[in-house]
Amino acid sequence: MKYQAALKYSIPRGTDDILPAEAEKWQWIEEMARKTCHLYGYQEIRTPLFEHTELFQRGVGEATDIVEKEMYTFQDRGERLLSLRPEGTAGVVRSFVEKKVFAEPQPTKWYYIGPMFRYENPQAGRRRQFHQFGVEVFGSADPALDAEVIALGIHYFEALGLTRVRVEINSVGDPETRARYRKKLIDYFEPYKEQLAREARDRLYKNPLRILDSKDPKTKEIARNAPSILDSLSVAAEQHFGQVRKYLDVLEVPYVVNDRLVRGLDYYTHTAFEYVVDIPGAQAGSIGGGGRYDRLIGEFGGPDLPGFGFGIGMERVLLALEEQNVEIPVQKRLDCYLITLGEAAKAAGMKWLEALRRAGVKADRDYMNRKMKAQFKQADRNGARFVAILGDDELKQGKINVKHQESGKQETIDLDQFISYIKENCRRG
Ligand code: HAM
User: Fold this and answer.
1) Can you tell me which residues the record assigns to a coiled coil (predicted)?
2) What is the number of the ligand 1 atom nearest to the C-alpha of 134?
3) What pTM, to 2 d.p., does this model score?
């Protein structure tokens, strides 16, 4: 085959092709996510891959890395400012408000699986197009719900066969807590102002909590002795956090309290948490994270209803599965491979092949004019359990030869028994 050497396109940096062998693994981790969600009464929601930029500015927060540095933002031909979604929560909350789902009995329990986009420095487990499995629950402020959602994620990891996933949990409090803590942080960081990284300095009065999340070594060192938010919690915030921990204990979900956990998004109130698993080689951080956001629905023009959710990074799930040598069940591609010899058999074979498929048997044939031996090889390569050989002579006699690949046993059977024979034997495995 000729091709023009000049026409060489490469995949955009930080994105991946998921080829069939890999796609099977994706199907499995997605299927387990769906199954787990259905066990907990969650339904799927699908929202657009892009939204008005303003939604993320308001929702995720102006002074976050995601909005400041990582969004894919563009103007469409109608001069609207749009962004590829860097995360799922903002769009899902927008939909909940816009479609007035708040008017229905609450809580609303939704999940989603799909691509997100962030302009990040790509590495293993940190991609520019990546995929999240997320859940969002609206309408309930019950701390038992926080515990349920955290447990749902753990249930999912266990269903996949992943072990050693730790839960880190913190409370970022309510507005009263935040106001008090903000002041304490500013008081603490002000004397070090000149030593802080530029970005941290810029955020000192805008969003001092973000400084705790800084990657700059010097800023990190200074932040180490900063006051703990847990000492600033209001009575209500302290109560909520205590209850969440109690319910996690009830559900036997182990966790550690990490009072430095602030998360990279601004919408959180009360509970913030992360799922952490060690993936050597991938400086990927957490495999998932989320928390409570009690003001976002109101901020998006809805009623004053609370929300809670998480996002789990599917690329990181696959990396962790690989790291822990978890075997992912893969399906055999074919049940039956049909070989025909002669023109009449070819035409009849087309019909039988279609009949097999209609009977629910995964079947295929050769379209490359291969020799018989090469066709057997093709059958093996596709994991076919049976190879059926139909020649013009057999066709005349109303017979077909069927070979069971594993045992090597070969039988001649009546054509009118063919479909039921294959079906029956495939069911038996
Ligand atoms: P997030 O912590 O920004 O939270 O992302 C959740 C997870 O997505 C991360 O823990 C990580 O596994 C994965 N992730 C994030 N960025 C990347 C990337 N560039 N490449 C690969 N994986 C990545 C959220 O997005 C919130 N919306 C979670 C949430 C839902 N909170 C409440 N509801």
Assistant:
1) none
2) 30
3) 0.94
